[in-house]
Amino acid sequence: MPRASPTFVHLDADAFFVGVECALNPALRGKKVAVGGGTRGIIASASYEARACGVHTPMPTAQALRICPDLVLVGGGETHCGGMPRYIEFSRKLFDLCAEVTPLVERRSIDEGFMDLGPCGFADTAAIEAAMRGLQQRIADKIGLSVSFGLAANKLLSAISSKRNKPHGFTIVPPGTEEEFLAPLPVGVLPGVGPRTESLLKSNGIVRVGDIPRQPESLLAHILGNAWREFRDMARGVDESQLSLEHREAKSYSQQETFPRDIRDFSEILRITKRMIDELLPQIRADGKRARTLTVKVRYPGMHDDVAGHSLPEAADLEDAFYGLAETLLRQAWRRTRSPLRLVMVRFSGIETPSAQLELFPEKAGDLERKRRLASVVDALNQGIPRIMRGHGIGKPGSPRPEPGAPAPKITPPPKTP
Ligand SMILES: [Mg+2]
Asked: I need a labelling partner for 108 at 20 to 30 A (CA). Which of 17, 88, 148, 228 fits?
């Protein structure tokens, strides 16, 4: 049964990537703005003004520009991943503000999460609402982001209700009204009901959530399989899941870039690849992690991909461990050398938390530690420097560019991907 009082809050930032861009450049506010991958990528986030013009995610950027010619694209014609370090920084600040209200915060994605205010000692729903409206205002004042909240007696209802009145929405589902709240909504609002299930339900006359509990069990089982009881519980507003509070560790760090035009020049692609490494390694260092495996993927104009990867004997977090490897992997991945490239992706995986006692080469540890300390100082200095300037600014310690004829690292062929 639903809980007696609504203490679950779902937070969903409004047009998060665009929101961050507007917070960094307030002149963009109120305009038709989108974060997208140049003229050949996709729209990753669109302002509500752009949405009113028909722009949505993930629409091809070229199509968005056709239907909305005065659309302001941010991100310098590169993918939204170019701004990812900034987005991660804003996400951290957002959830830090939430944690000032309750220790029970579950991050579900970069811009969505749950809070449980049950243990916080609020007297009643009015007190919880006041606290949440205060938080909504602090988020706007301190980091310049607009967020929407849904307050309900369980996670399911809070997540569905936060989407009902965006942007800057605040929806409360009073306890006892869960089923009534859900009944008129399309079945697609239920988690797990994708476009295929939705059309299957619709073809059986089940259009609204309220249609589900009325159906014979045999029909629900036929359409929804073994999970039919869970869907029927959800449709009745029943959800007893609790917040999942264990820290979800990143399993990989990746970035990709779709080029505004196909590129044939190896050195130009190598430069882009190294720039992505320069942006990912500070994130890995900031999380106190190291990576063992580097993978480079290339995409040709016909959308075919080739990939190459290599694992180091020991996890690393400094540029000099990866620059030479990136060059070798790029050469190996770019098998169809006659074809230009449309996209390149870099991924670090095999993420490890370093243990000071487990250095393979203890005699080198002092030198590595010195380089790491320098790298973290440079990371801190680079925060706040626009990325376009970084190449001309402070160089990374321990990141000598490999000599043109330097011996290449030994490469293990990547596993065949289906
Ligand atoms: Mg959002």
From this structure: 228
